[in-house]
Design brief:
single chain, 3 domains, two-stranded parallel sheet, 4 strands
Amino acid sequence: MRWPLKLLMVGVTASVAGYTYWKIAIPKHRVAIRSELIMLGDLDDDKRWTDGDLQVLDTVLKEFFVQPAPLTWRLDLNQNGLVDGEDLNILQALVNAHGDPYAAELTMTPKGPFPRPREFYRYVALNDYRPRPLWALPYPPAEDSALTWLADFQPPPRTDTYALALNTATRAEAIRFDQAYRRRQENLLPVEREYADRKLARVEELYKSGRSFELLLALMDLTEDAETLAAPREPNITLALLTFRDHLRAVLDSEAYAKFDAGETDWSSVLQVIFDHLENDLDFHYDFKTLSPPRNFTNLENYLERAEWQYYKTSVSDDDFLTLIAFAQNDPRYLRAVSRTSKRSQDPYVENHNLPMVLLFREAVRIEGGDKKKAVGLLDEAIRIPYAWIRSIPRTALPGSLALDNFLLPGNMEDGADKSRHWNVFGGICLYKSPEEALDLALRREMQDLRNVNYSTDGMREFVRDMIANLNGMYHVMTVDPELLDR
């Protein structure tokens, strides 16, 4: 064997042996996780427990729900998911001991169990979601709250059973709303005040009837309104969208719809009622029998706006997706809201769907730094629907859905991701065009879908339900004010 060949074989053997040794024998990081060391109770982030933490504590307690959730998470020193009196006592003990956890342990242990020093230190992955603890401290302002029952609602601050956890979350949510409402109350427009009063009356009814889960979600709905929404300061159709939405819900209970559903009248009688409401509520005039299809393929502007939309979708970073997934997998408020579902055909008014979408959109706006177009793009890319109706394409070759693969979406058995996409897409069109043009496009699209199923009873029901989802998205995307997003 010639020496060049021998040299080659020796080189190959050495390379294989070296690679095998490097792969198996040499210790290495096998998972790409980046973490940070957190000191619980270190509120001013100076890596010590000092009077500075107590000063930050005063600010945090005064505006607890305005502070960033990761900061409030550090205040849960006993790690029971609550901010309670024990947390405050532990922090005070650490400060009194000049930041020495061992000295604090020696001083406090004779009085009862006290955390070991190592329990105050946590390694936490950078992309881990850190939920806001529930407020379990006294709340003196409850005496003059807009929630007249809040002062009397004093459940034990515990989470060891489902009922106790629900009541604790409800009290914390009520306090969160009360603080947000006090910040906004003096500057509310009459239409905003009237809107809030109707929801407050609904909340009181739920409280008196003992419907705990529905009460919690109604309070969350009020909180989101108080923390994020602002009515237009000039005349606008935005609030009229809700009036039309409520009339659409009423159509499903109308005599005209009942006769159509029973086969006694044709589809035109129901559409006449709907388009009469459209004219009265929004001054939109259409002949539904001759309404043209939704798209104008000769309008270059439509393509330019679609290109901008597509840019925001495709430019979403992996970190943004991971942050959205972490929120939807772990945020207690979102998980409560998305848990309200119904069996097939048991949610005709699409009432289960809106609150979770409001929470998702709020988080998307926060992730994207207050840019609502980017937020719509993030959600649109996350909840896009696989084209399963194209049966000639193998299922494995169809585009996937980030949301369907990674977290629960709102809705019911018959909806899947459909209503979420309606909510987000037509809300987004308001940003690129206007509420008027978004509504026009929604009507034309849903009418085309209704024609495609030959005006069937199921098709009519979904026409109404899709329009309700469209209107909810349009209203909330337009009225969310990024400047009000405190979190």
